[in-house]
Amino acid sequence: MDNNIDSAIGAILDAILAEEGRMAPKKRLVVEAAILCFAEHGYDATSTRMIADRAGVAEATIFRHFNTKKALLMRIVEPVVKRLLIPAVEEEAGVFREQAKGDYRAFIRAIFLSRLAFADRYAPLIRIILQEYLVNEDLRQMLNAYAGGVLAKVSQEAFGDFFASGEIKDFPTDRLLRWKLSLFAGYYINRTILAPGDWDDEAEVDAMLDLIMYGIAKEK
Amino acid sequence: MDNNIDSAIGAILDAILAEEGRMAPKKRLVVEAAILCFAEHGYDATSTRMIADRAGVAEATIFRHFNTKKALLMRIVEPVVKRLLIPAVEEEAGVFREQAKGDYRAFIRAIFLSRLAFADRYAPLIRIILQEYLVNEDLRQMLNAYAGGVLAKVSQEAFGDFFASGEIKDFPTDRLLRWKLSLFAGYYINRTILAPGDWDDEAEVDAMLDLIMYGIAKEK
Amino acid sequence: MDNNIDSAIGAILDAILAEEGRMAPKKRLVVEAAILCFAEHGYDATSTRMIADRAGVAEATIFRHFNTKKALLMRIVEPVVKRLLIPAVEEEAGVFREQAKGDYRAFIRAIFLSRLAFADRYAPLIRIILQEYLVNEDLRQMLNAYAGGVLAKVSQEAFGDFFASGEIKDFPTDRLLRWKLSLFAGYYINRTILAPGDWDDEAEVDAMLDLIMYGIAKEK
Amino acid sequence: MDNNIDSAIGAILDAILAEEGRMAPKKRLVVEAAILCFAEHGYDATSTRMIADRAGVAEATIFRHFNTKKALLMRIVEPVVKRLLIPAVEEEAGVFREQAKGDYRAFIRAIFLSRLAFADRYAPLIRIILQEYLVNEDLRQMLNAYAGGVLAKVSQEAFGDFFASGEIKDFPTDRLLRWKLSLFAGYYINRTILAPGDWDDEAEVDAMLDLIMYGIAKEK
DNA sequence: TATGAATGAGCTTTCATTCAT
DNA sequence: AATGAATGAAAGCTCATTCAT
């Protein structure tokens, strides 16, 4: 599990590095400590002193690299959203659509499982986002700006394909998207935060797909 | 809208009153101010000074009635959950099950719509719960303790009925409950917080029911 | 000398009391400490911790009574300017004008000596004003607003009288006022700050009056 | 006006250059930025970061060239005082005394106007001196050391001459010097800082000279 | 010469809370 | 029941300065 977290942090660091090139060693330590503190205690309950202590760094060092505590949060979350979540969603959508060859269920399945893997990879960050989304307006706007458009677009394109294939009832895409997001988020929160334990992701995803497919399939 | 909020606060006050009888006038003012502040800014971003100012009361008055800030939060949320959410769910479940006469869809529909009305009635409180659920451990435990058991029980009983009626596939009830909660919460957050505006609740609920019913209906 | 400072502080406290009624004992201590610190080290070089320590009070106490450090400064300076400097100037001008019975020199002499006594009485405050006047815009504006108008008015009225008496050359009053202020301030700064010691105020004031009235040229 | 400031900075730079020969380009930038910042915000309200940003230079560069912030201030002010103010005063005094040929008024007039021009040429620096004189002990001592003696000497010599010429009443020179400085400074502050605008320097200086020479009493 | 990185000490201000009245 | 006064602890942040490169 520690390994998972370490690798999650490594992945987040890579995303930030890709944004701003080489990174001072202490800055890296700050980011690592901040991710852990924010994820464990939430943003408000994390003090800059906590982060500094955990990073083994002077408090002032935090502010030299990130002007404010809020900026530190954003600089951790934004690159992952912008450079990983979004591009991955777009690229993936193309690939999976191709692979699925008109099979909507297969398409959604691939996306669900891959996004689940993504969320696991960036687990601490996902936790931060879930905790702050309703309370932190900047973060909410950033996420809506990046994610809103892309998700809608991808969802719409893909749905168009499959709708044309005659497999599916006629639906407003945004409603369908909302359902999928709700089910996905509900499952993720449950299996990861509320009742962590042994979950059979494939079985659960398949069950959700049954729900969705029979729910939205054209009646014969 | 202000009327809605006023009536929501009145309803919350009633729930608290039902718990502890007559309430000192300044205490009432504190509760009112606290609900608004917590809902607007979140728990952490609300200072006791803010609450006192908004209530037109000395800061010390808050602490005469509620020993800590956290206790104030809990005393606002708990009675509503304990005295309104839970009993209503239980009672309702019985009534609706009776009325539905074996029609699972009608049963869920009644519950969805009535819970939507409930959430609207207590809108600021719902917002507080959504914001704090993942961040505030006390609140999460309290909610899980009260709601978890009841929801599971109600859901299970009702589902048992309807399952016996042969209408529905065989499902683990907790999974079905999770789906319904996910869809419900997803819709509520969207229509109330993310994209408030004109939503046709009945149509949306019916669509969700289509999804659920065709999704889980036994294939013929 | 300590006695002088004590009495100066007492006088300043009285002015503040007259503005805002009864004063909490620790608040009074804060004001006393702040006056001394500001006068001794200047505003910027005085930390709120210094004031708190000197007052034997928690730092937070300062901010409970005065929201900001700057507000503390203004609340010390403003009442004295507004309630003592200004009214005194106005009242005095009337009295002295009467007493002088058309003798401009006697009039100015009385004012100079009385203002010198005033400045001594409020010595620490005068020092604060001199130090901050050019650097602190709020303070400068406040002083200009209160003092500017009154001084000009008083000076103009008095000068009108004496000019009519035929004693004095025709002069723009503001220029004459500026000269008098320059000479007065120059003398005060010199005898109080730059070269404190034994000064014969009456002799110096008389010499200034000679200068003003007759200049330095030998009479032919 | 920007031209004036630019030329003022150029003049100050020249004075520093004269002290220490060739100057590294970034050092020059630091000096320029520091003068502007100190004059605009005062010494305390100017951070080294502000200076560095304005100069387009790293903060550390400031400290490579000037060991402390205070040293930077002094290195800006001192050369102008030492190499320009003082020598000019001394030289000028000789020249003007010669030119005035025993006419004290003409002598003072020449000095007043030339010093006014000097103050304008070094306007930002003069502002810095006025702001810091009472608050910064080092600066005050430096100024007193350089200026005090010279002014007294020049004033005394000149006054001796003119007193011998029988033109002037017998006066303690320091008192006369103080009056002239007070009037001069009072005029400068007024016309430059408090009420900038169109001032007729020659007329104002002549009026001051009238005051000094003949006072304001009507000649009989 | 010039700087990016780092920091210890200190800043003003805010916080939830206590207590005497 | 209600509060004005007071506070210890801690918050986020800034400062002038150092140092390795």
What does this structure look like?
The structure is a homotetramer of 220-residue chains. Chain A is mainly α and 220 residues long. Chain A has two domains: 3-65, Homeodomain-like (Arc Repressor Mutant, subunit A); 74-214, Tetracycline Repressor, domain 2. The first copy, chain A, contains ten helices and no strands. The first copy, chain A, has helices at 2-20, 25-41, 48-55, 59-65, 69-100, 104-121, 123-132, 137-164, 173-194, 201-216. In chain A, helix 5 runs antiparallel to helix 6 and helix 5 runs parallel beside helix 8 (137-164). The interface between C and D is large, with 40 and 39 residues. The structure holds a DNA duplex (21 and 21 nucleotides).
Determine the structural class of chain A based on helices, strands and strand pairing: mainly alpha
CATH-defined topology of the largest domain in chain A: Tetracycline Repressor, domain 2
The CA-CA distance between the termini of chain A, in Å, is 47 Å
Tally of individual domains of chain A: 2
Total number of β-strand segments of chain A?
0
Element pattern of chain A in H and E = HHHHHHHHHH
pLDDT average of chain A, as an integer? 88
How helix-rich are the residues of chain A, as a percent range? over 70%
Helix run count of chain A: 10
CATH architecture of the largest domain in chain A: Orthogonal Bundle
Oligomer: homotetramer
What would you call the shape of chain A?
A: elongated
* Largest β sheet strand count, sense and barrel closure of chain A: none
> Can you tell me the residue ranges of chain A where pLDDT is under 50 for at least 5 consecutive residues?
none
- The radius of gyration of chain A is 19 Å
For the largest interface, the chains and their residue counts are:
C-D, 40 and 39 residues
The fraction of residues assigned to DSSP E strands of chain A is: under 5%
CATH class wording of the largest domain in chain A: Mainly Alpha
